[in-house]
Amino acid sequence: MRQAHAMTNTSNDTTALILIDMQQGMAAATSPRNNPEAEARIAELLTAWRERGQPVVHVRHLSRTPGSPFWPGQAGAEFQALLAPLPSEHVVDKHVTDAFAHTGLERWLHQRGIRRLVFVGVSTNMSVEATVRSAGCLGFDCQVVADACYCFDRPDLDGRPRNAEDLHRVALANLQGEYGQVCQSTELL
């Protein structure tokens, strides 16, 4: 099992905050979800990263499916105002769940010598999990902030309803230890 290193923010330590899919379409979703305070925790972390002068990456899902709320040019594809990138912050557009797939994110991080990543966003069991798995496999030291991620209720393969909190916890368990470390926002603030 791969062991991720504890994250600290010393003057020689660059840690990027990766915000995944914090778009208006996610905020407008009507499916039941867990962790209603996730956006507030993300905003706190974003403020702290900006104050520390640490790099911030905003990942945006742009769908290739016409009619999707995440279709380019639709309001749903735009960032939530509270979590919108500053002009100096990097934006990655993705078309699949994994933010490393065909985006140049890995190269961007390597060019800046960034090896430590902190992940927040939505959905824990989809884009967050897919992206953290890739990051861990690529050798990055990863932390996933449990109280700054959330997901939606979803049926299992047999059609049985599964609640968002259970899906969230299972996705985090899938990541813990093998791909990174799961933490709470208070540990980073």
From TrEMBL:
Cite the entry's keywords alphabetically: Hydrolase
One Gene Ontology molecular-function label: hydrolase activity
Per its UniProt record, what Gene3D superfamilies does this chain match? Isochorismatase-like
Tagged with keyword Kinase:
no
Domain Isochorismatase-like intervals: 15-184
- A Pfam family assignment: Isochorismatase
Q: Does the keyword Hydrolase apply?
A: yes
Q: What is this protein called?
A: Nicotinamidase-related amidase
- The species this protein belongs to is Roseateles toxinivorans
Per the UniProt record, the lineage of the source organism begins with:
Bacteria, Pseudomonadati, Pseudomonadota, Betaproteobacteria, Burkholderiales
